[in-house]
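User: quick one, fold this
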Amino acid sequence: MDAQPPQKRSQMVQRPGELQRRAPSQRSRFLGVETSPVLVWQDWEPGQDFTKTLVLKNVHSKLQKLQFRPPLSKHFTTVIQQIILLSPGTSHSMPITFTPQERCEYEDSIEFQGVDGTFQVSLRAVIPRHALAVPKSVVLPVCAVQHSTKNTFLFENTSKLHTWFQWDSAAPFQLSPKHGLLKPGHKCSVTVVFRPQEALLHQQEVCCMFGDNGKEAVNRCTVLLQGQAKYPYLQLRCPPEADKVEPQSPVIQFGPVAIGCRLKKHFDIINSSPVTASFSFSSLRGGTPQLGPEFSCDVSSGELAPGASLRATVTYTPVVVDTVAVDYLALTYPGSLSNTELTLTGNCIGPTITVSCPLLDFGCVQEGGEVVRKVELVNSSPGEAFFQWNLDGGGHSVFSIHPDCGTLAPNSHIRLKVVYRPTQTMAHHRRVACLVLHRDPVFLDVIGTCHSELQKPAILRPGHLNMAQLHWHRVVSQPPPDQPSAVTTVRKIKPGQQGALCPVEEESAQEVQTLERVCTPIDEYYQACSGGFPSPSSSPASFHTSPHLTVEPPELVFDLTPSSSSSPSASSSQSVAITNHTEDKLSLMWTALPDSPFSVSPPSRDLCPLKSTSFRVTYAPTQINALHGAQLECFAVYAVQEKEPEGEERLVFPPWCVTVRVIGHSFQLGAEHFSPRCSVKPPTVVFPALGVPSHRSVVFHNPGELPITFCRHPKQASPRAASVSLTPRCGLVRPGQHQILTLITTPSEDCPQQGFSLALQLNGAKYIQELTVISSVEKLCISMEAESRLLLQPTAVGSSSKRPHRIQNLSRLPLNFEWRIPGKDRKLISVEPNSGKLQPNEKMVQTWSFSPVAQTKYQLKTFLTAWPTQTPGSSSALQLETERGTIASCSTMTLRTTVRPETRTWYQWTISLQILSASGSMLSAPQQLCEVRVKGVYPTLQVVDACTGGSLSGLNKVQLWKRFSLQSLNSQLTSIPSPVELTYTTPTRHSLRRCPSVFTAATMEFNFCSAPLGSEPSTVLLLFHNTGTIPVEWTLLFPQDLRLELEYWAETGQFNSTELHQMKVQDHRLFSISPRSGTLLPGQQTAVHFQYRHEFVGLHQLPVLFKLSHGREILLNLKGITVERSRPYLHFTSNRHVFTPVAIGIFSPPRQVYELYNGGALPVHYEVDTSPLVQLQEDNFNHPVLCCLNPLGEVLPGTTATLMWVFSPMEAKTYSVDILIHIHGGVSMVLTFEGCGMDSRESGSSASLYTPDAQPPVSGVTRGPLPGQVVLLSEEMVSFGNIPVHSRSTRIIFLTNVLHTDTILYEWGLPQEDGQLVVQMCPETGRLGPDQSVICVLTLNANDCAAFYQLDLNCQVTLEAAVTQYRDSLRHWDEAIERQKHEFIITDNDLRGSRGVEEPQTAPVGHKPLIRKYKTLPPIRACSIVGGTCTRPTRAERRAQRDPTAARRRPEPPKPAVLHLRVTARSHGVLEYQTHFPDRLNTNYIYRTSLGKPCGSQTPSSTPLPDDLPPLTHGLERDIITNMITSLFMSLMEDPDFEQSVMSLASGAPEQVPYFRQLGERGGPSVSPAPYRSVSAPASTTSLNLALPRPISAPDLSSLMEQLLGKRGETPVEPPSATPEQPQSATPEQPPSAKRERILRCAEFSALCEDILTNSLMNLMGEVSLGELQLIALPRCAPLPPVSART
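Assistant:
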């Protein structure tokens, strides 16, 4: 047998789900012989022998005789045996040896032949191969859309090699692990995650690549993944009693819940879908609640199996009394097709506390006796109530209540013991307030009379209180009780049966009820705790009478620290003052406690009418290291009542009572104070978000075993904390008890949303208890769906369609709303409901109906009006003159109302009436009578214009508005005043200090800049305008106007540096204001002059209070600097400058400017240190981020110079660099320059298009002449906006002389940049007669670089009469000087005695000047015009007039008034401008001759204009040429001969010699008329040689224009000429259309046309201004005569 080479196998077939090879033990039967079909050798190595045995077994019933063929290859060998005999059931073993030579696969076979046929046994030697066994498919569980499910499967490494695998899958399937290394025979579990996004049946065949490593993995197998997705559906189901609406909008209504309580309700979440769904809850509250969420749910997220349900519990915890809380829980789960919301509503109610008896009468009690009464305190609310009586419980009062504080359980009552223990023989009355947490206080009146054996005053009865109240209501000022006749005469009242003064008319019970207290309970409580002074939250109209008795201060804090621990007898005393505001004499008596550490001396005193007296309160503790506190009371009665006879009760008035709270401690030096244990609930106090006075209460609890004293922190003086009134301000809290604190304030707009801290000092030491207060005003905010747009579906005419729309209240205020539909649209659309009330965060679904009447497209606009609902505290803003009355039949009754708004907002009231019977019973339901709406406003002023004069005349209006912060001042004047600013509604002297404190946090700086010593005063004129609807009384108050005038002995004589400085400023009147007060009616204006005199060197400041009566208070800090005349000085308003943001990546960043103002008398040379700029450039890859174009320069006195900068950012970030500006001979200054780079891709392409002064602080249009102004500019600010480079822009302004008799001269001063005029004004100078106007044409010529233009044009205005006077004075002065050169004076003292002639002697130095025969003229005083008016001579001028040597001084010219014109623009490159403003490019005129030049350079290759023509440049010559050519063209167009010639030329008639042929000759010989003779000009000539070879048959006017313009760089335009050698027909003639096109494209022709059009428009505007032309006149048409038929 021939050996054959082995067959190599490089691949292996892998069948999914089966092993790649059969097990070796598997046997088969062939022709009755059982044997293995294949022998496989594994794990072998080349060069060795490996033997396997092939077993043949005869399973047949007869003898088998087999012949076999041995293997063909030499690698498989066996025993050579020709015939194998197998008996039935016997076996034969045949060894087969495998001898490999190399590592590859081998295959061979042995063939057996029997009687019945042949069969083969395969021989195979294999090498190790990678093999994996994977399942055919994997099925995943059903999954919800946007959810996930998972399953796992195993795959096995069936090879003998380490196999690396990599799974490749796509969404929605994800396998983990995706790759790894599997050892031989090991298995791996793969997790399949199924995340479907659609409800479909998903199938995907994932592939697994495996092999040695990732790069050589060539084997692959696949697994089929299958998964089904369905949409989830969850439902919310509320209990039957809570679910009162449709299931699509479940609602849980908690109803009224008491504050401090909690109410829980539940709802079910049901999964109605066949898939598992995960969910979460989120709150949809529009604004963040200040006190935390009121609703909470115990389930925030979860997962529900198909058909399962989950019960969730919602807890409502109310936090603000009398508010309705609305919140929404949104059920969100992946894959939901609709949103499900759960509406939660709850109403917070406060405690309801009542006293069983409002008045307790103790009757008559003997001195030293004691009477006890019982009273019940009832809590009828379902919540717990905290209460506290405002009464001293330590024996310092004749009345006491036990217990004086505590808590009341819901729907319960407590019996209180009230004790009356008098110590003086008099009548006692206290109106005791019972404080209730979160509620207004309730009051209990207690009265009693004390008798002794000797003194028996009139007994006070309950009826006396009502009669006294009636008397105080009717009598504004109480006369003495012993003069009833005066009262009865004036007030028409009489003594009643019980001794009180009663009106003559019959008093009914209903009239007595109308005399209830007008002030609210909280105001009455505050007045009782503040010593009788009114509450800051109450208006003056809320008090029925002025306070009768006041005490100041109402609180005293003693800090007693003895010097020795063994001497506890130290004491401290303070004084209190009590003022009698009545016209009667009062007796004051303090209630004394013998063992108390607090005592008052003297214990009693008489007080005369309208006088004050002082008492000393002494703190003398008998125990060291202790805390004490008390409430001292003082009763005041009419002094005449004590003199009444016994038993007579003619006139009885209840006494008044004032209290003083005192606290103190006696801790020794070094002794540790008690560490307090306390709590404040709630820790955060939130006031209503409405700018009206409101109050809140908190409870201060002491759970410890030691007492605690508290007081307001004395060092907390922030304006926001000072705006909150705390009552009481101090006190002592005993162990286990509490103190209810009341906070009163008016929320403001400037309060931060996060609130501020209010600090309480505890135990007189370092312990601090903070309370967060939020009192910010919020604007009403209503959210609408679809961005306030509603699209109604197409509807057939005559039918209607409906569409729901949702609105939501996003503010913290409940509001009323109403839809307003224009009358013409009410037939088309309607809404239900069209009005209603929205609670905070509440949503409302409204239904809009659309009923079209025609087939068209409708665009309708409706308006939603909203306003806050009336709060309980604002009911007193509206008062009815008559609430009850009788109307006769067929008559009319006038109902008068009085409105007193408390804040700037809209008020609305609904007045209803009821018909009553004669007995008072109601006969009908309430009927709406009318609706009252009113808007409360504060007085407001606005600064509408301003101008400068004197030393400040060099400042323009923009600089003035910035230095005087006028824009911020206007913003402050229109804002709502804080309650502290309304402490004094009118200007009042209230301070004892020379630097009075102010009640405002608004401070503005009026910076007068700087000026040299002795210069003219800096004057600023502000024009105030009353933009409101009410008159405004305004006052400017100096510090001395706010200070009380003291006697000489009261002055301390010790002043600090600030007081000395202000005294110097005020005494020398460095600052002056005129006028300082006034009244402006609505729409009126007034001018106020501010002046600063430069008489002392240094910085001067003066605070001036700008007070609007019943309005804002703003502190104006007047600031000015006076510089020595020999000192160079630059005035910097700030040490920081921010450049305009520039986009990164632009080719030519714009130039920007920084202004330097010279406030001294000398020119200032400056130099900018550019070393930081070099360092900045090196840090940015050598890119010039910031460059200064003119680092060296000079600033003239009183002028402004500009530093030119180029800011070119590389990154979108903020750059900052500190630059030192050296001032030669002066003080250098370090400025911080900042610039921000912007990425236009993120911020938008238009973000970098910024124009300086795009939003100026004041309108550029002049409102009218200011007082004293003689010339008026129509515009003071001109903005050209964004313009391209090389462009010329023009504006028209009018200059008007407002004087009726005088003529003025004006001259414009034009600024330059880089030595070039950027702007032009035509005319630059001129003369204006009385009431005359002139048109000034302003032209801006943008240069070749992009830049920001901020130019200041000055117009100097001088009276012509002053100039004439100056010239005459100058002429006289010149003549006098010339005359003095030739004159001398001979003086002889003894003319009568000696006649001899003596030699002239020179007068000695120091003698008086000689008397001359001739004297020069007196100096001509310059007429200084400030805004066009002549001012008084300055001190220097008056001194010069008194100086006799001043006669030789040269007359000074009149100082002109200066008008400022601000010009702003921003120029862009042409390509950049075309990119950002494609529609505006054609509206700008661009000089095309300057295009293509590099920035700031000249093109060397440009051809100059011809030498024999005037250059076409801006100026007088160009204007002359333009006017000449314009006149020439106009004459030619009006010449009929010229018109006929043109028509003949156009018709083709030949002309031998053109009429303009003479223009081509310059002194040469006359042109021959020969038609074919030519004189050609060289191509380089620039003269206008128009020699023509032949007559032109059709000349064009454009050819003439082209020759006159002399276009640069081109050969003069000639028709082509024919040479003698060339026939005329061979020369091509240029068509006229080509010439016309070339002329039209000529830059010079465009410039000429621009000038002609501009000049024409200027002429038209001039005629319009003179009244010669009316642009708005209607066109006139003359009718033609009727055509008559010829006979």
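User: anything notable?
Assistant: The CA atoms of residues 202 and 1472 lie 54 Å apart.
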